[in-house]
Protein 1
Amino acid sequence: MKIKVQDLIIFGLIRLATYFVVFIIAYILLDIIVNGIGAINWEFLTTFPRKGGSEGGIFPAIVGTLYLVLLTIAIALPLGMASAIYLNEYAKQTRFTHIVRLAIITLAGVPSIVFGLFGLGIFVIFLKFGTSILSGSLTLACMILPTIIVSSEEALKSVPMQFREASYALGATKWQTIRKNVLPYAIPGMLTGSILGIGRAAGETAPILFTAAAFFFPRLPGSVFDQVMALPYHLYVLATQHPGMDEVRPIQYGTALVLISLVLGINIIAIFLRSYFIRKYKW
Amino acid sequence: MSSDTLNNEPAIKTHINSDAGCGQDNTTNNTKISVRDLNFFYGTRQVLFDISLNIYDKKVTAFIGPSGCGKSTFLRTLNRMNDIIEGTRHNGEILIDSKDIYGEKVNLVQLRKKVGMVFQRSNPFPKSIFENVAYGPRIHGIKNKGELENIVEKSLKNAGLWAEVKDRLTSNALALSGGQQQRLCIARALAIDPEILLMDEPASALDPKSTTRVEDLISELKENYTIVIVTHSMQQAARVSDYTAFFYEGDLVEFDVTKKIFTMPAKKQTEDYITGRFG
Ligand SMILES: Nc1ncnc2c1ncn2[C@@H]1O[C@H](COP(=O)(O)OP(=O)(O)OP(=O)(O)O)[C@@H](O)[C@H]1O
Ligand SMILES: [Mg+2]
């Protein structure tokens, strides 16, 4: 009897915790949607801001964020996947790989502002890339590399050892085995994990604060050495630095809604990919 | 001991079976694999002790013994599959066609092409039936579609699977039954045209009917291949093999013609094991 009551209480608490989380997420989403939807229209999405962001649209910020995300993917994905392949398939378990793994885990816990300052020091100043898409993407890539490496390694680990063995036993070399009999099964998992990291890159402000972002840039960036506007930074400035903070509330909400849709969209792609491939590769 | 001296003495040198094969069958026995004083270690743990035996060309040799006695480990030294496990080492010699397979100039790809392997748990790739069988030939550089199709058909026929799958070569191999999967793995191993076929408990996960099929298959295949099979079934060893090696805790206790092992084993341990008194 007593045990049953205990059970009920604990179960109730756990349930409450879950509801609480869902409630908060729902509240934030609803708040943004309700307040932001009014600001969204064709002009908002396709024109440049005017009068210091008090009027006009957020077109260059959308484009800027897309550029940053794309270049970040181009840098971080191959690097992260290659590292994961090396760590999981080639490297022996030595003190060195142990330290590398430790470093990766530590890196995953470093606050994003630290990455921002690191990027400023290394890419902007030392390598003289300036405040640019390149510097920003490199910084973002550093930030999401741990996520990509860890999830890619998980994906590689989940490919049964037997596939590798069978392949070796047929006379395949290590690279042939990896290319034909490990990667095809692991890449979906590698991608889905990585996309979640990329979603995070799209939404972060701190890493691009000193490395890439401009509050206003009169044209679309022409090369990777140009500064860009970006959604999270635009939102940050409108919400904290703008002289008419309260008047531009609708624009803030609209920007937040676009940003959230973008990140959610990226995550939803990941979820669909995952369930698609889980159905396709069963073993 | 240089390999040259060994080449000149094909007769078995172990104390256990110096008269093995005599009088049992009249065909001459050519040594295909010759193992000399093999010791094998996982890290610091030794699991094989001074193994010496000969495996004869176009014969079926069965390895029996209680679980954990080192049968699989020994089998896997024959195509160097243990190489992929970290921290393993060995000493002693393994000669295939008089060549030391652990020698410096040995090409692993060529070795494994010559020594095919079928695993205990059938492990088809999650690809189509065709791609499973074509995997090996492709790796060894065959690109021509017609040639691949021929190899696939021939291998599946040899493995006794062709009739069942010829209409669905493009469907996923994982949709096959357990017995079919195991025969597919045999076909996959045959597709690279090996000379030796190592089989680690190929029928352990199969129902009696599929087991019979695989056993029949082994009897057919020995016309063209040298076969080594690990099995826990005394009946199976007695049915399919010409020679039987009994292992116990990393030692080769007895190696002889199968008939002799099962009718008058020389060692008490062997007798106890095959009569089911332990193991
Ligand atoms: N990868 C490994 N690392 C360390 N020890 C191992 C490894 N594989 C096998 N062993 C050990 O080596 C010994 C021999 O194992 P092996 O698999 O060769 O036995 P087996 O005769 O094939 O047994 P079974 O009939 O159960 O398959 C066992 O004691 C086992 O624990
Ligand atoms: Mg075994």
Protein 2
Amino acid sequence: MSQIDLFNTVSRSVRSGAQQGPSSENGHNNNAQATTTQAVPTTPTAPKTKGTTIAGTMHATDSALDSDAAFKLKGNRVTMTILELYRYDYKSFNDTLATTVNSAPDFFNQTPVILSLEKCAPDCYIDFIELGELCREYGLVPVAIRGGSEEQSVSANVAGLPKLPAASMSGKSSDIVPDASAALREVRVEVPVSANKLITTPIRSGQQVYAPGGDLVIIAPVSAGAEILADGNIHVYGPLRGRALAGVKGDTSARIFCQSLEAELISIAGNYKVNEDLQKEHWKERIQARLEGNQLVIGPL
Amino acid sequence: MAEIIVVTSGKGGVGKTTTSAAIGTGLALQGHKTVIIDFDVGLRNLDLIMGCERRVVYDFINLINGESNLNQTLIKDKRIDNLSILPASQTRDKDALTIEGVQKVLDELKKTYDFIICDSPAGIEKGAMMAMYFADRAVVVTNPEVSSVRDSDRILGILQSKTLRAENGGEPVREHLLLTRYSPERVEKGEMLSVKDVEDILSIPLLGVIPESKAVLSASNQGNPVILDEESDAGQAYKDAVRRLLGENVEHRFLTASRKGILSRMFGGR
Ligand SMILES: Nc1ncnc2c1ncn2[C@@H]1O[C@H](COP(=O)(O)OP(=O)(O)OP(=O)(O)O)[C@@H](O)[C@H]1O
Ligand SMILES: [Mg+2]
């Protein structure tokens, strides 16, 4: 059985078989766990933990608009590598880490990891300061723990590692069948997909692209005979030669931006102008189009 | 590794078959084992342009249906060793072309050929779809006029969505623009789109510009691909295009109307 499990969320193509987990023979270092059982003060008045950007919606004061506010806290979700700890002692942890990292030396480069203690015995003593140093030596940066006993949480806290609420992340990782033979596995912690659509290749005649519920961003030409639609705004970083319809569900605040106006038609929330009218002003120029009342107004950008 | 190149356009009569014959012949002349397949079922004319129409026994559809084998069906070119032609059927209907059937033949050809050139029929119907489906690269033949450019644009969209490569989501089909029947005089008079106009609209790399040339018609009447006519501007332009297709960097010629002598061209005339 190996010592740690790294569940990783990096896409396959990046990894392309570059690493294998520690093979099981490397995990066997059962030289009596807890040789390092020295006492560590576990005062509840632990140092304040660093701010975290992991799973959690935090609302700052309503000072978003105060010009003197230096920052604002925002809720967000990120994908993270999880280091699943089975037990801890310096030597076996170090060995497993070395094997894991050496199989992919370039892979871990200041990679933040979450330490999962869910598979670890609740009475297992973990020196988080030592563990943290070891990790950082190999390019892994522990940022928080998940699971674990009360005692473990306190000593983690002392080492500057806050405890994540188990529920916030454990949902998705239950996807993975715990399987000690494969140390590196993939877990997709759900990242909310934005409704915006980004297109990087030309939209050709006869093609249609629609961004339901969001903006459409195109960094390529849109050919005559093509049609692009969005519930929100449309941005074309290239010539717009086809038809562009923004706010198709009726959003009158939607706008259309393009690098060169050569369109067959543009429309916002059903108010449109056809090519004949468009040619009269700002033709082949960078423009933005928006609604003023029911009037489609085209101006320079 | 064999490469499958489709010669396609959307619009009819722009020079696909002329181009397939020229490029296929050019690749073979450069030492690559090449086969040209006529996908224009019902309207075959590749064999006419290649001058082998009297030697056709079996055709592509026979081969697909297993009524003939590769050896019986391929016509070896009499002029060039490395070159074969797979003629289309004049009689059968297009429904005989199936993905599985085409794949079977292509897989067989891939074993021995370096390049497989697929001469597509016009339009975006089944024949054209079959010709492009397995392509690694596409030569998009375009005339310098608005309707041809529009059709090419359409074809480019289909190449990026309805081919095997598109469906597999890997490397997309590599696109090459071949502008044919280009007449610099008419461009200067504003009667035709310029190379730059077409490049602007299609935004794909330019493989070559083939001038409008009487040599094309007389070559095809003789059943000689125009690339074999080394005197002709069209023949030379196709030669350059083949070299570019093979990755060479060759300067574009025949882009301007000035009828200057060879000397002024050599000494930096436009
Ligand atoms: N560069 C050129 N200069 C002059 N004539 C040309 C040139 N290229 C092609 N042609 C002429 O244009 C006509 C159509 O050519 P071709 O048959 O190659 O087109 P195609 O695209 O294969 O047509 P189809 O869509 O019917 O298959 C022929 O008569 C040919 O001789
Ligand atoms: Mg043809």
Protein 3
Amino acid sequence: MGAGHAHALYVHEHSPIHAASPEAKVAAVLLFVLSVAITPPLQAWAFGVYAVLLASALVVGRIPLRFFLLRLVGILPFILLALMVPFVGSGERIDLGWVSVSREGLWAAWGIIAKATLGAGAAIVLVATTEVPAVLAGLRTLKVPSVLVAIAGFMIRYLELIADEMGRMRQAMTARGHDPRWLWQARPIASASGALFVRAYERGERVHSAMMARGYTGEMPVLEERETPVASWLAVLAGPMVAAVVAVIAVVGS
Amino acid sequence: MTAAIEVRDLRFAYPDGREALRGVDLAVGQGERVALLGPNGAGKTTLALHLNGLLEPASGEVLIGGLALSEETVTDIRRRVGLVFQDPNDQLFMPTVAEDVAFGPANLGLRGEELDAVVADALERVGASELARRPPHHLSGGEKRLAALATTLAMEPEILVLDEPGSGLDPAGRRMLVETLAGLDVTLIVITHDLPFALELCPRSVVMDGGRVVADMPTRELLARPDLLAEHRLELPYGFTLAHD
Ligand SMILES: Nc1ncnc2c1ncn2[C@@H]1O[C@H](COP(=O)(O)OP(=O)(O)O)[C@@H](O)[C@H]1O
Ligand SMILES: [Mg+2]
């Protein structure tokens, strides 16, 4: 990711979703993901409704489809894994000519892929329309324990720093004639990552010192509490509430 | 009057056995501004970490305002001694600069408007008000330095210890830093390799080498001693001359 920055996940736009309060958005994503997660794979129609809801969020949030699909590539490993399920699954088999697959396995694979895509999609919409500090503030307002929020914040903050450090190491190697274009050519990077972990560990100790130096005693101070108007909560939660109703119908009807 | 800082025969070794401090003695008066000089590895950072109780000496004593550093006094002493770290990335860990500046005073119990005012004031003193809502990792090296300084100023320390605050600053940022620091009503210890910077800000210089204090004299006098400077790997910029008065 070279000198890449946090902006990589954020779409600079002005849209109603960008403007909405972060805690409402975080809650909305949680509700949506929960609805998707509990829906039985056999209720295919429900997933159609979810997909329409997600697509409308992309339109309203002015998130380019290309941007969205590129970010979605991150779940590819899960999809590949899910595609193996029908081959190893048990129960009734369906003959595809040269190979037979398990019917149950097919449904399971479909469920995993549909849920992973929708869940990741919702998360992408959240971070594409909300800057990281606001997401963290949203979590705090939702009464997520401040220690957890702090840890999440540190992870994001220092992952970026480590990614930067890695980018710099890579540059230094490239400057001296190494050309790690593919992962499997990156042996020097792999050995350098040992150094990276040591640095990350020592960084952690120094950050802790810096916190102690400013009076940290093990409890993150809670800085601010803001109120979000009920109307704005409802506006943001409208889509996910539809999803929740669909999920309930799907669960009851199966 | 009691000294602001008194260090007596301080010794310290890192867990890997390296002796970083081998008997440091130092006294700094209230309101004094002292430059702490010396080659890389001299032990300057290690000494700074002791002044605020972040490292525990193997032997010797640290007294702040006459109060001996111990487990009972360490919280109080951390409030009185502000430490600005060598790498600002270690010091900026919150999602936004404003939250980072608020972290210290919030730990001291400040909240709401009072906290906001302290944060705004600290950022203004270093000329970094417009950085308030930015995430620290998007700042330039110099901006990070200013933000890190603000996080410490917000705690209103009586003693300010800065570890190489000038590196990464452009000339204007450096001048701003000198002016900001000169205007503070605190006892100041500045670790630096930048001798003109030391001369501008600190009438007194302490040179460390090999874990000991090897020279302690007026900065102007030190800069006129090429033998001492060379021996401890200190260098004036090319073409620099001391104005005579
Ligand atoms: N965390 C550490 N672990 C082991 N040795 C260290 C550590 N930090 C510093 N040192 C060693 O202690 C000595 C003094 O270091 P330091 O106080 O950082 O010097 P300075 O700030 O003057 O450059 C050096 O020899 C350094 O290598
Ligand atoms: Mg140092």
